[in-house]
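Most newcomers find our protein records easier to grasp once they have seen one. There is nothing in a record beyond a sequence line and a structure line. Getting from the letters to the tokens is the skill we practise here. An example says more than a description, so a record of this kind follows:
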Amino acid sequence: MGARKKISADKRKEAQKSQYYAKLNDEPSSPRKMRLLADLIRGMEVNHALGVLKFSTKHASSKLEKLLKSAISNWEQKTQQKADSAELYVTNIYVDSATMLKRLRTAPQGRGYRIRKRSNHVTLFVDTKTNNETEK
């Protein structure tokens, strides 16, 4: 690795030490369906967001709930505090599209219709309200 790359990699690693996040890769549901839930919990307090996800009827809510619990656990691990004592918020969440499986469905007169089975990547950031205000 060159010197410039090493410097930028070290900066990136240092910046990630102060961020608390969890990632979900290759979730086999469409990004559009996952974004509906992501928009619902963005900026919410963590316990409230867990309640919303637990009682949501959407299929993706169980995966997003598990991801949020993982992000909370990561925050507890890095800060050596309990999440109950601090007011944690979902600071940022974004959904990106992942690989797409392309299939064919038979159609009349020798044609074939394309089926795209989409998947997505979700990244969820958690932090306290006081940390967010000091950074800005």
Q: What stands out?
A: The chain has five helices and five strands. The chain has a mean pLDDT of 93.
